[in-house]
Every structure is written in C-alpha cells, then in structure tokens.
Specification:
Layout (H helix, E strand, L loop, with lengths): L1 E5 L6 H15 L6 E4 L12 E3 L2 H22 L3 H11 L5 E5 L3 H4 L4 H9 L6 E6 L15 E5 L10 E7 L9 E8 L2 H4 L14 H25 L6 E4 L5 E4 L24 E9 L2 E3 L6 E2 H8 L4 E7 L4 E8 H12 L4 H7 L3
Helix pairs in contact: 2-3, 2-5
Protein name: Zona occludens toxin N-terminal domain-containing protein
Pfam families: Zot (PF05707)
InterPro entries: P-loop_NTPase (IPR027417), Zot_N (IPR008900)
C-alpha cells in the first residue's frame, strides 16, 4: 500500500507519522516484520524493530539493483516471483513499512525502477508512507496507486494548540468531495520525545487573536451605538393646535442630520382589536404611506382624530418618519375618501394645508 502525508512545514505531518509508528509497534501486529524511516532526529533506541533508512541508497541503489534482478529472474525462472521475495527477505526488507520523509527528493524524477517498485510493492509486503510538503512536487505517475492522502490542517488555522486536525482523502486531488474522514490527534509529550522536529514548536493560530479582535470591535460598535441612541436622541414630533378642527404639523427641534429615535408617546397595545401600526413619511408637512400619497399632515390629524396616536418618530436628513397606530376601520375609510371623486367637502378638507 502507498500513502501520502502532505502538509506545510510544522503543520504536524511528522507528528502524525511518529504517532503512527508508535501505534504500529505497540499493536504487535503480525502484518509486518520491521519499520524503516529516515525521519530526522528519530530515537531508534526506543524501539527494537524500527530501523534507520538510508533513503538515497535504498531508492538509488537497492531498488535499482532489485529491478535488474527481477528482469533477470523473469527471463530465467517461471517462478520468478519466489526468487524476488527470497532476495528481499535476505536483504532484510520483506514485509516492511517505510516512513519516508522529504519524499519529493526522489519522487520528483521519473525513474523506471521507482515506477516498477510502485507497481510491484504488494508482492514484497511493502507499505510506504511518503511525507512531503506538496503533492505538486511528486511526479504524476507515482500518484495512481495510492490508498489515501492524509493532510494536517495548517497550524495557523487551528483554534487550539492542544491538538492537530487531519483530513483523509481518497485521491491525490484532495477535493472536498474526496474527503472521507477527519480526526484529531491531541499532542502528547511522549510522542514528541521520540523525535526532534519543528513540530515541537508551538505555533499560535492567527484565528484566535483575530476572533478576539473582532469580538472587541463588535462590542465597541454596540456600545457606541447604544451611547449614540441615548446621547443624541431628538425630541418627539410635536403637533400644535391652531383651531378645534385642524392641527398643523411642525418638525422636531432635532438637528438636520440626526437619525435618532425619540422617546415614544402613549402606545396602544397592538393586541387591541382593529389597531394597525402605520409608518408615514413626511416632506415639509406633505405625507405619504403605502396606503396613500401626498396628503397634508393636518388632513391626517383631522380625519383620524382620536384614532391617530403617534408612537415614535425618526428624523431623517430631509424628511421625518412618523409611526402611528390607527384603527383598521378608520384607515379603510380614509383610503376610500382619498380614492373618491373630488367633491366640495373633499376640496375643503384638502385645502387645510
């Protein structure tokens, strides 16, 4: 089987490999006889069946010679496979697991004996774990026979320094659709003590300070908003009565650019039967809503009379929004009045402005 462990420097890929070696040794499995690795700083004295791999000699010399031996045995023997297995057994590599760090050093070249090894490794009881910084550094022909790719999430994207997350992909494309599982490995001192690597350096995630900064930013904005609402709120809309029949609308004394919501007047409970909340926008005492257009404010006050209760008002740059409660029945009557044909009474009322 062939596996790739892919990740940026100090992302946790070597930690994953050493943890895997430790688990394999402790499992005392009958599926392999020994483990070879070239991981830097690995403490071989901690294990009986983990041996140092001379990476250059193994791939450039031993595999090349074995490939030549294979071609000769195939010409001379019908049971050439048996001869190859015995040769590998004598050399001490049969049923071995290889953890090869910096795999791009030898897998970036298209070599016939390496291609043969990838196609024939199952007969020899080999399992390869190739550790590399990027699959783009590996020749495409060495990617066709893989079992899976494991990739650690970069340390700068982690929310915790206590563990590393690893994604497993079924293909070397490493697309989201290719991912079939994820796992977390919590960092353990006993694993770090088995090798020396940049993985031991604790790298802080840039996400944590950014999330803290965003929390303070949103908190500050919310506090500023609440302070602005309380410190710069304008006065309520005032309606001054000049005669018993009509009232003339005046703007509040709020500043021209003040968008604050003034305190509410007496509010009808919206649960009262027939009440509706209506927003009216007025430009220089001429008002409109979704039910009517361009009606003088005094006309609204006269028509609705007691049914017209101001709840809130919002001063805009060139207009003011007035929120009122009115009865549905009176609102329907007013809409019909506005839509009706002009009459003397209607003209008299509209002339109040």
């Amino acid at each position: 089987m062939i596996y790739y462990v892919v990740g940026k420097p100090r992302s946790g890929k070597t930690y994953w490999a050493v943890n895997m070696i430790n688990n394999l040794v402790k499992s005392k499995s009958d599926d392999f006889d020994q483990i070879y690795t070239n991981i830097g700083g690995f403490k071989y004295d901690q294990f009986e069946n983990v041996k140092k791999l001379d990476y250059e000699w193994f791939f450039d010399t031993w595999v090349r010679d074995l490939h030549d031996y294979f071609k000769k045995a195939k010409r001379e023997h019908d049971d050439y496979d048996h001869h190859i297995v015995e040769k590998v057994r004598q050399d001490g590599f049969y049923r071995s697991i290889f953890f090869c760090d910096e795999a791009q050093e030898y897998l970036s070249r298209d070599l016939a004996h390496i291609r043969w090894l990838f196609s024939y490794q199952g007969h020899l009881g080999f399992n390869f774990y190739f550790i590399t910084q990027a699959l783009g550094l590996i020749k495409p022909k060495y990617k066709y026979t893989i079992e899976y790719v494991v990739s650690p999430v970069a340390s700068s994207f982690k929310l915790s320094n206590k563990y590393s997350k690893y994604n497993y992909y079924a293909t070397t494309r490493m697309l989201r659709s290719d991912k079939y599982m994820s796992e977390r490995l919590f960092f353990r001192k006993e694993i770090f003590d088995l090798y020396k690597s940049g993985d031991k350096i604790k790298h802080k995630s840039f996400l944590i300070p950014k999330l803290i900064m965003l929390a303070f930013l949103f908190g500050g904005l919310f506090a500023y908003y609440k302070f602005s609402m309380s410190a710069f709120a304008g006065d309520p809309v005032k309606v001054k009565s000049d005669n018993p029949d009509a009232s003339k609308y005046q703007y509040s004394s709020a500043k021209k650019n003040d968008h604050a919501v003034p305190p509410a007047r007496k509010v009808h409970k919206m649960s009262d039967a027939g009440d509706q909340l209506l927003r009216i926008r007025c430009y220089d005492s001429i008002c409109s809503s979704k039910h009517f257009q361009d009606i003088p404010y005094p006309v609204l006050r006269k028509f609705f009379a007691a049914d017209f209760t101001v709840v809130n008002s919002v001063q805009n740059m060139y207009s003011i929004d007035i929120y009122v409660t009115v009865s549905s029945r009176t609102l329907d009557m007013f809409v019909d009045f506005v839509a009706a044909k002009p009459t003397k009474d209607k003209k008299d009322m509209l002339s109040l402005h």
